[in-house]
Amino acid sequence: MNGPKRILALAGHRWTRRGGQYALLAAYVTFAAFPFYWMLITTFKDIHDLINTANNPFLFNMRPTLDNLRVLFFDTLFVRWLLNTLIVGVGVTVVTLLLAVPAGYSLARLSGRWGRQLAIGIFLTYLIPPTLLFIPFSRIIGSLGLQDSLWSLVLVYPSFTVPFCTWLMMGFFKAVPRDIEEAAMMDGLSRFGAFLKVVVPLSSPGILTVIIFTLTLTMQEFVYALTFITSSSQYTVSVGVPTFLVRGDVYFWGSLMGACLIVSLPVAVLYNLFLDRFVAGFTVGAVK
């Protein structure tokens, strides 16, 4: 009798543990997905449904409406702001890759005390608060004649994306064995050729991490975009949405949530599609 009872006890313990795991997973999924659900339901809620405190805020108490999206797309320059954000994001990403990838590779192959100190110095520049730099940067932008231009953001944003991405790529390049480069060079490739054809493909998770980090930071930056851009047609999403959808003490909550949902969904999809590579890019060398 002890055998069947023990088997039943083990089965019950296994199912209990599995049930606990599923419960924790369900709680985490609910916590992670709730902001998207809140943005989605608020986007399509009627204004009277939103302001009535007696209504259930988690459900539609009145018929869903498209008025909030109409205000967002036709009463503001939201599409133009999206395009401006995309232009700035692509430009900053290209500049960051062109500077951070070679710099990270150089620091990874630069041995000795000077290499370590230079790498630490580059990373420390990332820790300087951007709010301390926008005044001197504004004078530089004015001297270059780039006021109210998206190129001012493309020029300034790499100042805080390149240091961190250089440090990130340096750690990733250190994990690539030098023997692979030496073997490629023995096969006839130059060092630059070995870097492009061997090291860069092996470092694709780190490069993807740089792209995602740069795009995300560009989309959410506010201070520089507000300082350097003055005309509404040149705004990015982070400045245009709160400027036009918050008027005094009046908040267009439905339109605000619609803008947040439209902007955040592509980023969330991108993170989930490349989650394994993104984590690998940030944790490379952790075991070593």
UniProtKB/TrEMBL annotation:
Pfam family, one: BPD_transp_1
Membrane topology designation: Multi-pass membrane protein
Transmembrane parts of this sequence: 21-40, 81-106, 118-138, 150-173, 194-216, 252-274
Ranges of residues in domain ABC transmembrane type-1: 82-274
GO cellular component annotations of the record: plasma membrane
Keywords: Cell membrane, Membrane, Transmembrane, Transmembrane helix, Transport
Broad class of the protein's primary localization: membrane
Signal peptide residues on this chain, from the entry's feature table: none
Subcellular compartments: Cell membrane
A biological process term (GO) from this entry: transmembrane transport
Domain of life: Bacteria
Family: Belongs to the binding-protein-dependent transport system permease family.
Protein name, per record: Sugar ABC transporter permease
